[in-house]
Design goal:
The complex is a heterotrimer of chains A (162), B (768) and C (82).
Chain A lengths: L3 E7 L2 E7 L5 H8 L18 E4 L2 E4 L12 E3 L12 H8 L9 H14 L5 H7 L11 H20 L1
Parallel strand pairs in A: 1-5
Antiparallel strand pairs in A: 1-2, 3-4, 3-5
Helix pairs in contact in A: 2-5
Chain B lengths: L28 H6 L14 E7 L5 E7 L1 H5 L3 E6 L20 H8 L4 E2 L5 E7 L2 H10 L1 E6 L6 H5 L25 E9 L2 H7 L2 E9 L11 E6 L5 E5 L4 H12 L6 E5 L15 H11 L3 E4 L2 H7 L6 E9 L5 E11 L8 H7 L8 E9 L14 H19 L3 H7 L19 H10 L1 H4 L6 E10 L4 E9 L5 E5 L7 H13 L6 E5 L16 H28 L6 E4 L2 E4 L11 E2 H6 L1 H4 L3 E9 L5 E12 L4 E12 L6 H20 L30 E6 L21 H13 L10 H14 L1
Parallel strand pairs in B: 1-12, 10-11, 14-15, 18-19, 25-26
Antiparallel strand pairs in B: 1-5, 2-4, 2-6, 3-5, 7-15, 8-13, 9-10, 9-12, 13-14, 16-24, 17-18, 17-23, 20-21, 21-22, 24-25
Chain C lengths: L1 E4 L2 H7 L5 E4 L4 H11 L3 H4 L5 E4 L2 E3 L12 E5 L6
Parallel strand pairs in C: 1-5
Antiparallel strand pairs in C: 1-2, 3-4, 3-5
The chains are: A alpha+beta (162), B alpha+beta (768), C alpha+beta (82).
Chain lengths: 162, 768, 82
C-alpha cells in the first residue's frame, strides 16, 4: 500500500515522514522518530501512557492517526523540559516520589501540564478527575496528586515572582 | 500539600543516620520523568524483525494440524515457530524461579503442543521485516482445531463430569490416589492442635463461604522482549522482567541450552507485581532470532496480556471460626479451592499458610485445593494466595465481633499474634510488629472519625512471610573517590535509591557520589529475582556487606599510607582517622578520594564483591482501615478514606515504603470492588482491555494515608523488613467489611461491583 | 534433643503418624541422614523442594544450618512471592 506523507511539528521541530495510512501517531513517534518516551499500555486510549499534546490539547497518541498530525503541533514528554532543565512538574514528581516503575510517568506529566496550562489552581478533585484517564498501578495515585498540586503552587509562585 | 502523615509514623528515634530514613531524589529519576529510560519495547537494534504470536480462539481444543506454508511463502517472513520447535521436557518439578517449578507446564503454556487450554493460548509465532507483514503472515497460518467442551470456574472444574484438561492429571495429596484423571491437581493440608475439640469448646461459631474472582496484576507495561542469536550461538536477550537471571534460567531450560550461552540484560520494568516472574515471549523470540539470524522484537498487546498472561486465582473460600464469648479464638478451619488456570500451580497452599497467621489460634486446619480450568495459567501476584484467604478470615472475624458485640479492633488485639505465637505451618514467630500496627490503628484519628449516612467503616489485617535468598553486590571505588554500586535486581519501585542510601551510610560518604547500577547476567554474580519483598532486605544486605568490605580495605590502604597497622585506623564519616599518635608524625585524616587516588600504589583497585544467601527476613503485618460510602440507588461504592498501617522494620527511603503501602492498598481496593474476568459461553474473554477490566483510577480514590511502624528486624544491618506484599492482603477484608457495615448486609462475594451490591440491597429489601 | 514437628498428613505418609520426633544432630544435613535412616523414603519426600524452619528462621535451600540441643525444626513448602 502506498505510504502517506506527513508534515508536522514535534517538540517545536519540523518533521517530515512517510508512514502506513493506518499508522497511529504513537507508532510514528516511537518507531520513526525515536521518541520512545510515549508508551503503549493498551492501544485503545484507556490508559493514557501515550498522552501527548496536539496544539496544546491533551490526546492519546494511540487514538490519533499519524496522517492527522499534518499541520499540527505535537508536544511529547521529550518536549516538556527545556534542554536539560526540568519543568517544575518533572522536578516535583521527583521530589514527591510520585513514580515507582515510571512507565506511566511521561503520560501523567504531559496530562498534568495540559491541566495546569488551563487551570493553574485546581482543587484536588479537579486534578483527580482530569487525570482519571491516566492509569497507574504502582502508586495508588496519592503521591502523583500531591506532586501535581505542589507543582501548581510553585508555578503560581513563579508566575507572580518571575 | 505536605506530608502531614509523617508525624504519625512510629519511628525508632534512638538511632541517628546520615542517609537511612531520608527522602533524596531517586538516582534514576531524571531519565524516568523525561522519557529517556529504556523499557523493553523501547529497544531498537539494527535489522530488528517484529515477532507476532498466533493465539487460540478456543478455550479448549485439540490441535489437529498447523499449516504454516502460506505464511512462510510471504516475502519478508524470516522465521516461524510452533510447539514442535521446543524440546519436550519431563513432567516433573525442578528448582527454579521462586519455588519449585514444572518447566514442562511453563513451556506448554508459552506455546501449545497437542492441545490449547484457554482463549489466547499461543499456538505459533512468526517474525517478519515489518509489523504489517508479521500480522499478515499471522493471518495466513492455518490451525485446524477440534473444539472440546470447556470449563471456567473452580467449582465447576471440580465436578465429576467436568471436561478434563490434562488426561494424565491425578490428584496429588489424596490417599488413596484417585484412579481417574480430573482437574483437581492437588490437595495440601496444614493443621495444629485439635479442631474437633476446639469447635466443641467454642461458645460462638461463625461459618461462611466466600468467593473471589481472578484478577490480573495490571501492570501498565505489556510484556516486551528483544532477542538476538549470534552466529556462534550466543544468545542475547533484553527484556522487561523481574529478574534477568530467572529469564536466563527459564530460557535455558525451555530451549535446552547451557545457561552460560545466554546473556540477559534487564530493561526498566513497567510494573510486575509477580506477573513478570516467568517467561512467555522470551523463548519464542530466541527461536525466531535463531531461525532468522536477525534480532527479533516481540511486544504483547493489552488484549494478549489479559488473555494469555497469569492472573491470580479466582477462589472459593470456606471459613469456620470458633471463639469463647469473651472473644478468645479457640478454633479455625478453612477450605480453600483456588483455580490455577490451565496448568497446576495456584497459590492455594500459601492461602492456607497465611490466612490465620495474624492470630493466636490453638486449633487450626487449612485444606487447600489446586484446580485447573480453561483460563490463562496463574502467575504470582503480590503475596500470592494470601489476600483471598485473608478476605474470608477477616470477614468472619468482623462478623464474630458483631455477634459478640465487641469492637473489631479490640477483638483482634485480644487474639493478636506476638513473638512466640505458633503458626499453622509450624515455626513460632520471632520478633514481629503486628500488635504495634493494631495499637497505631487504635490511636489513629481515622479510627474515631464520625461517619455519615450510607457510610461504613471496615478494618482488616494481613500477613506475609517475606523472603531473603541469594543476592550479589559489587561496590567499586572509582579513582576520584566516587563509588559505583552494582546489583542484579531490576528496580521495580525505587530500590536503586535504597541501595545507594545503604552503601553511602556504611561508607559514611556523600550520597550524591554513590551511583547505583543494575548489571546484566554477565556483569554481576547471580541474584534471585525482584519479588517476594526481598530486594531491600537481601540485596540491601549484600550491598551493606560489600560496602563494609570496602571500608575494611580502605582502612588497610590508609594504614599502608601511614605505615601503621589497620587496627590503628578508624573509618568515620567517609574518612580514615589514625588512632596511633607518634611524635613528629602528622597524620591528617585521609578522605575516600585521597585513598582512591593512591589506590594503584597501595595495592590496586578497591572493590567489595559479595554474594550471599540471605536468611532472617522478618515477616510483615498490616492493619488497614477503610471508609466507604454506598449509593443505594446504583450500588456504587466510593472509598472515602483509607489508612494503611504496617510494620516496615526500618524505612530506608520512607517515600518509597509509603508508596508500596499505597499501591498495594489500591490494588486490593480494585480487587474488592471492580476487577474480574468476564467470559462468554464459549470461554472467550470479553473484557480484554482497561475500559472493561476496571482498575481504580485517580477519581475513584481519596489520599491513601500511611503509618510506618518501625520494629527493626534484627536480621538486617539496618533493620529492614520486606514491605511490598503485605499491603495487598488486608484491603479485600477492609473494603468488604466497610461495605457490609454501610449497607447492613454481609457481602461475601468479590468484586462488590455495583450490579452485585444493588442486587444484594434489593434482595434484602424484598425479603423484608 | 532437638524436636522435629511434622504436619499430620506428612507424618501419616512418611513417619507412621509420628508428628513429633526427637533427634540429636548438629546440623540440617545430619538431620536428614538421621530421619532417612529412621524412616526410609523421608529424604525423597523433600525432593519437591521443602524449606525448613529452625527455631523460627526459615531456610529455603538448607544444607549445613546449625541445629541446637533445644531447637525446634519444621518442614514447610517453599515460599515465593510476587
Amino acid at each position: 500500500m502506498a505510504k502517506h506523507h506527513v508534515t508536522t511539528t514535534v517538540n517545536r521541530e519540523p518533521v517530515e515522514l512517510l508512514c502506513d495510512p493506518s499508522a497511529t501517531l504513537l507508532d510514528v513517534l516511537r518507531d520513526e522518530l525515536g521518541l520512545i518516551g510515549s508508551k503503549e499500555g493498551c492501544g485503545t486510549g484507556d490508559c493514557g501512557a501515550c498522552s501527548v499534546l496536539m496544539d496544546g490539547r491533551l490526546v492519546c497518541a494511540c487514538l490519533v492517526l499519524a496522517a492527522e498530525a499534518t499541520g499540527h503541533e505535537i508536544t511529547t514528554i521529550e518536549g516538556i523540559a527545556e534542554g536539560n532543565t526540568l519543568h517544575t512538574l518533572q522536578q516535583q514528581f521527583l521530589e514527591d516520589a510520585a513514580l515507582q516503575c515510571g512507565i506511566c510517568t511521561p503520560g501523567f506529566i504531559v496530562a498534568a501540564k495540559a491541566l495546569l496550562d488551563r487551570n493553574p489552581d485546581p482543587t484536588e478533585t479537579e486534578v483527580r478527575f482530569w487525570l482519571a484517564g491516566n492509569l497507574c498501578r504502582c502508586t495508588g495515585y496519592d503521591k502523583i496528586i500531591r506532586a501535581v498540586m505542589n507543582a501548581a503552587a510553585k508555578m503560581r509562585e513563579e508566575a507572580v515572582h518571575g | 500539600m505536605g506530608n502531614e502523615q509523617e508525624a504519625l509514623n512510629l519511628v525508632n528515634e534512638q538511632v541517628e543516620y546520615k542517609w537511612v530514613g531520608t527522602r533524596p531524589i531517586r538516582p534514576d529519576g531524571a531519565d524516568k520523568v523525561t522519557g529517556r529510560a529504556t523499557f523493553g519495547a523501547d529497544i531498537d537494534l539494527p535489522g530488528m524483525l517484529t515477532g507476532v504470536v498466533i493465539r487460540s480462539p478456543h478455550a479448549h481444543a485439540r490441535i489437529i494440524s498447523i499449516d504454516t506454508s502460506a505464511a512462510a511463502a510471504l516475502p519478508g517472513v524470516l522465521g516461524i515457530v510452533t510447539g514442535a520447535d521446543l524440546p519436550e521436557l519431563p513432567n516433573e518439578v525442578a528448582a527454579g524461579g521462586e519455588a519449585p517449578i514444572n518447566f514442562r507446564y511453563v513451556s506448554e503454556n508459552a506455546i501449545a503442543r497437542d492441545k490449547v487450554l484457554y482463549d489466547g493460548h499461543a499456538v505459533a509465532a512468526v517474525a517478519a521485516t515489518s509489523v504489517e507483514i508479521a500480522h499478515e503472515a499471522a493471518s495466513l497460518i492455518k490451525v485446524n482445531y477440534e473444539v472440546l467442551p470447556h470449563v471456567i470456574n473452580v467449582l465447576d472444574a471440580m465436578a465429576d463430569d467436568a471436561p478434563v484438561l490434562h488426561e494424565g492429571l491425578i490428584t496429588k495429596g489424596v490417599e488413596p490416589a484417585p484412579t481417574k484423571a480430573s482437574n483437581i491437581a492437588g490437595k495440601t493440608e496444614f493443621a495444629m492442635g485439635d479442631i474437633e475439640k476446639g469447635f466443641a469448646e467454642s461458645e460462638v461459631i461463625i461459618e461462611r463461604s466466600y468467593t473471589t474472582e481472578a484478577v490480573h496484576q495490571g501492570y501498565i507495561e505489556p510484556h516486551a522482549v528483544v532477542a538476538s542469536v549470534a552466529a556462534d550461538g550466543m544468545v542475547n536477550i533484553w527484556c522487561s522482567s523481574q529478574g534477568q537471571f530467572m529469564i536466563r534460567e527459564f530460557c535455558a531450560k525451555l530451549l535446552g541450552m547451557d545457561i552460560g550461552r545466554i546473556r540477559v540484560t534487564p530493561a526498566e520494568i513497567g510494573g510486575g507485581f509477580g506477573g513478570k516472574t516467568t517467561v512467555y515471549l522470551e523463548p519464542l523470540a530466541v527461536v525466531l532470532a535463531q531461525k532468522s539470524g536477525r534480532p527479533v522484537r516481540m511486544v504483547m498487546s493489552r488484549g494478549e496480556v489479559m488473555r494469555a498472561t497469569g492472573p491470580t486465582s479466582g477462589t472459593h473460600v470456606h471459613i469456620k471460626l470458633g471463639a469463647k464469648r469473651d472473644g478468645t479464638f479457640v478454633a479455625g478451619e478453612m477450605v480453600l479451592k483456588y483455580q490455577a488456570g490451565a496448568y497446576p500451580g495456584s497459590p492455594a497452599f500459601l492461602g492456607g499458610m497465611t490466612g490465620f497467621s495474624c492470630y493466636e489460634l490453638p486449633n487450626a486446619k487449612a485444606t487447600c485445593w489446586d484446580v485447573v480450568s480453561n483460563r490463562p495459567k496463574c502467575a504470582a501476584y503480590r503475596a500470592p494466595g494470601a489476600p483471598m484467604a485473608s478476605f474470608g478470615v477477616e470477614s468472619a472475624i468482623d462478623e464474630l465481633a458483631q455477634t459478640l458485640g465487641m469492637d473489631p479492633l479490640e477483638l483482634r488485639l485480644k487474639n493478636a499474634a506476638k513473638e512466640g505465637t505458633a503458626t499453622i505451618y509450624g515455626p513460632k514467630f520471632l520478633q514481629i510488629g503486628y500488635v504495634e500496627t493494631l495499637l497505631a490503628a487504635k490511636a489513629h484519628p481515622h479510627w474515631s472519625a464520625p461517619l455519615g449516612p450510607n457510610q461504613g467503616r471496615g478494618i482488616a489485617c494481613g500477613f506475609w512471610f517475606n523472603i531473603g535468598g541469594p543476592s550479589s553486590a559489587s561496590v567499586h571505588v572509582n579513582e576520584d573517590g566516587s563509588v559505583s554500586v552494582v546489583t542484579g535486581n531490576p528496580d521495580i519501585g525505587g530500590s536503586r535509591a535504597s541501595m545507594a542510601i545503604m552503601a553511602a551510610e556504611v561508607l559514611g560518604m556523600e550520597l550524591s557520589k554513590v551511583k547505583p547500577l543494575i548489571g546484566d547476567t554477565g556483569q554481576i554474580a547471580y541474584s534471585f529475582l525482584t519479588g517476594g519483598s526481598r530486594v531491600t532486605f537481601a540485596t540491601g544486605m549484600a550491598v551493606c556487606d560489600a560496602a563494609k568490605d570496602v571500608v575494611r580495605q580502605l582502612r588497610t590502604r590508609a594504614a599502608k599510607m601511614w605505615k601503621v597497622t589497620a587496627e590503628d585506623v578508624e573509618w568515620r564519616d567517609g574518612s580514615a582517622f589514625c588512632t596511633k599518635v607518634e611524635e613528629g608524625k602528622d597524620r591528617a585524616p585521609l578522605t575516600l578520594a585521597a585513598i582512591a587516588h593512591a589506590a594503584a600504589r597501595t595495592g590496586g583497585p578497591i572493590s567489595g564483591n559479595v554474594s550471599i544467601n540471605a536468611a532472617g527476613a522478618g515477616p510483615g503485618f498490616g492493619t488497614h482501615i477503610c471508609d466507604v460510602e454506598v449509593d443505594p440507588e446504583t450500588g456504587a461504592t466510593r472509598v472515602i478514606r483509607y489508612t494503611a498501617i504496617q510494620d516496615v522494620g526500618r524505612a530506608i527511603h520512607p517515600s518509597y515504603v509509603e508508596g508500596q503501602l499505597q499501591g498495594g492498598a489500591v490494588q486490593g481496593i480494585g480487587w474488592a470492588l471492580n476487577e474480574e474476568y468476564v467470559y462468554d459461553a464459549n470461554g472467550r474473554l470479553q473484557n480484554t482491555g482497561f475500559l472493561d477490566y476496571r482498575m481504580p483510577v485517580a477519581s475513584d480514590l481519596p489520599m491513601i494515608d500511611t503509618v510506618l511502624v518501625e520494629v527493626p528486624n534484627p536480621g538486617h544491618p539496618y533493620g529492614v523488613r520486606g514491605v511490598g506484599e503485605v499491603p495487598i492482603v488486608p484491603p479485600l477484608g477492609a473494603v468488604a467489611n466497610a461495605v457490609s457495615h454501610a449497607v447492613g448486609l454481609r457481602l461475601t462475594s468479590l468484586p462488590i461491583s455495583p450490579p452485585k451490591l444493588l442486587a444484594a440491597i434489593d434482595g434484602a429489601k424484598a425479603a423484608g | 534433643m532437638a524436636t522435629v514437628i511434622l504436619q499430620t498428613e506428612f507424618a501419616r505418609r512418611y513417619t507412621g503418624g509420628q508428628t513429633r520426633l526427637t533427634v540429636a544432630v548438629a546440623d540440617y544435613s545430619a538431620l536428614i541422614e538421621t530421619l532417612e535412616a529412621r524412616f526410609p523414603g523421608f529424604e525423597e519426600s523433600l525432593q519437591g523442594g521443602m524449606a525448613v524452619a529452625i527455631d523460627g528462621e526459615i531456610y529455603q535451600s538448607p544444607l549445613l544450618e546449625k541445629i541446637g540441643a533445644e531447637s525446634e525444626v519444621h518442614f514447610l513448602p517453599p515460599i515465593g512471592g510476587g
